[in-house]
Amino acid sequence: MGEQPQMKDQSKGLINKFLNGIEWVGNKLPAPALLFFYSMLLIMIVSLPLSYVDFSFTLTNSHGESVVQTEKVYNLLSGEKLLYFLTDFVRIFVTFAPLGVVVVGMLGIGIAERTGYVNVALQKLLNITPKKLLTPMVLFVAMLSHFAADAGYIVVIPIGGILFYAAGRHPVAGIAAAFAGVSAGFSANMIPATNDILLQGITQSAARIVDPEYTVNVLSNWAFGSASVFFLIVVGWFVTDKIVEPRLKRTQIDDDAQVEEHKEITAKESQAFWISSIVMVAVLSVFVIWAIPTDSLLRHEGSLTSAGAPLMKSIVAIIFIVFIIPGIVYGYLVGYYKKADDIITSLTENMKDMSSFLIMMFFCAFFIEAFTQSGLGRLIALAGAETLQNMNVGPKTTVVMAILFIAFINLFIGSASAKWVLLSPILVPMLMHLGIAPELTQAAYRVGDSTTNIISPLMTYFALVVVYCQRYIKTTGIGTLISIMIPYTIAFLISWIIFLLIWWGLGLPLGIEGHYFYTHHA
């Protein structure tokens, strides 16, 4: 009997050492913008000696034939390359694919979020939920909140705790379920959001290292992402009700807990919400009616969903319009806006919120350009492809290995865009050389990037979630929250990988123009 507590203490000590190690390593990493800057400098320096070496790789093409590919690294410190960067300095930044689309999308969604329209919509969904379906509804609303940037962290997670407490359940279980939905299921979404646009732009840039004409549809993962919502709700429901909450029942809520009362939506807010929602439906209807005729200008050769279709090219603009108009209407109806100048003030505030993102994108753009111009991206991709091909593990094992690698890296670099900017120039071309399409690699990235968010102390909102828990249990710390969330991470990671493999095995579409395989024209 005496050995069991001792083993328990040893395992706790190992876990704490592991978590402390993660925190130490993560804290040593520079800010994302500096990380890209240092990486760019490293690429420039490394390109000099490697430019004197000729590399060759033997790969098997789609016809099963062995093809020798030669690759050369270009010296970025040469006068020619330095002049290229100087003369194209502005173009490299302003034409960086993710830059404009995210800024435009966030301006529209930001208005809807800032005025309170999004928050009321999320609260209404939670308010109409029967107690027995509270867990799946919290998870559903948490995943639905992804279209509104960080609204889930600010609104849904604390409300999850309040609603569980009001229902006589442990509030921390409600916080955990909401946190899992918002963060561990981050890439599972039915409504196209800025994250889809951002990843698409980065993936496309990486794919063009191999194929300069390659186009990635912004909705290429939409079907898989939508199905993942319902799949992960079931998984999260089981973990919450059968694992997390039973364990939390042994943890008493503080007698002086700062329990917030659920803030009711006022009649004025409710009326404004319904009017604004009708406006949103009307705006969407305009685009639907416009798209219906077979000769619609939104179609390309009769298709609405091909990459060349104006509708697909207009997704960002449509997201902007669909959210900004009802957001403005709601703002006026609740008195948030008094005059037109107030809207401009809100847009200005949105841009202020994006200032750090813009700085990061500046350095991202030059990192990607340096990686592309040096040829290092192609070199690493071919080397990795040759290694994996020689291992002969098959495409499915390769994708699983990529997911596990991404999930590990995610513990240290929280930003989805920053991570994908770093990894995509390597993973996307490398898997393309193995016949795996960029759309499938992007889907794999979304799985790995999401599941470990909730156990990384370096995740932006992790400390905030600790504070939410401390409202009910003051002794809650980083380790406490990680121990609560680990079951979600393990369950989501394993089951989501299996779900992707089954989805792939059945040949179900990843999304619109969501390809599984890429035919490399060597």
TrEMBL record:
The reply to whether Membrane figures as a keyword in the UniProt entry is yes
Highest rank taxon of the organism: Bacteria
The portions of this protein that span the membrane are 33-52, 89-112, 133-166, 222-240, 272-292, 312-333, 354-373, 393-413, 420-438, 450-469, 481-506
Entry keyword set: Membrane, Transmembrane, Transmembrane helix
Q: What species does this protein belong to?
A: Wohlfahrtiimonas larvae
Q: What is this protein called?
A: AbgT family transporter
Fetch the Pfam families from UniProt.
ABG_transport
Report whether Transmembrane shows up as a keyword of the record: yes
UniProt xrefs under InterPro entries:
AbgT (IPR004697)
